[in-house]
């Protein structure tokens, strides 16, 4: 038997989610999931060098499971990779992927700066 569409089962407990939040992707208020503050900090740390999830979790005032979830989002976004070494999971940043994202964001910034400049020009002409 499957859960109703507005419920998610995780670790044998049911987490209620509104349909609207689920539809938005639970990223919240327009901030892409991979760019949330804790995730940016995790990414910064793993770009500096490979880190175990345990070491990362010790750096934050949140549970190990919460840090694992942040790492999983970054992994799904292709910004870091994980590997096993014995019992530990090690995370390392993907520099090429981060540079690609940075390049894309630079291009978008140029587009928006151009649009804002054109709006400024139109406003000056009207006054």
TrEMBL record:
Entry-linked CDD domains? HTH_ARSR
Q: Report the source organism.
A: Ornithinibacter aureus
In Swiss-Prot or TrEMBL terms, this protein is called HTH arsR-type domain-containing protein
Which segments carry the region annotation Disordered? 1-35
Pfam assignment, any one: HTH_20
| HTH arsR-type domain ranges (all copies) | 30-107
Domain of life, per UniProt, equals: Bacteria
């Amino acid at each position: 038997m499957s859960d109703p569409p507005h419920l998610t089962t995780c670790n044998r407990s049911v987490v209620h989610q509104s349909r609207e939040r689920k539809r938005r992707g639970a990223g919240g208020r327009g901030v892409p999931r991979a760019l949330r503050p804790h995730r940016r900090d995790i990414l910064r740390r793993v770009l500096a060098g490979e880190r175990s999830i345990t070491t990362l979790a010790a750096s934050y005032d949140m549970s190990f499971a919460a840090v694992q979830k942040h790492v999983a989002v970054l992994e799904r976004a292709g910004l870091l990779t994980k590997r096993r070494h014995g019992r530990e999971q090690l995370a390392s940043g993907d520099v090429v992927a981060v540079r690609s994202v940075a390049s894309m964001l630079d291009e978008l910034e140029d587009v928006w700066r151009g649009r804002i400049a054109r709006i400024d020009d139109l406003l000056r002409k009207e006054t």
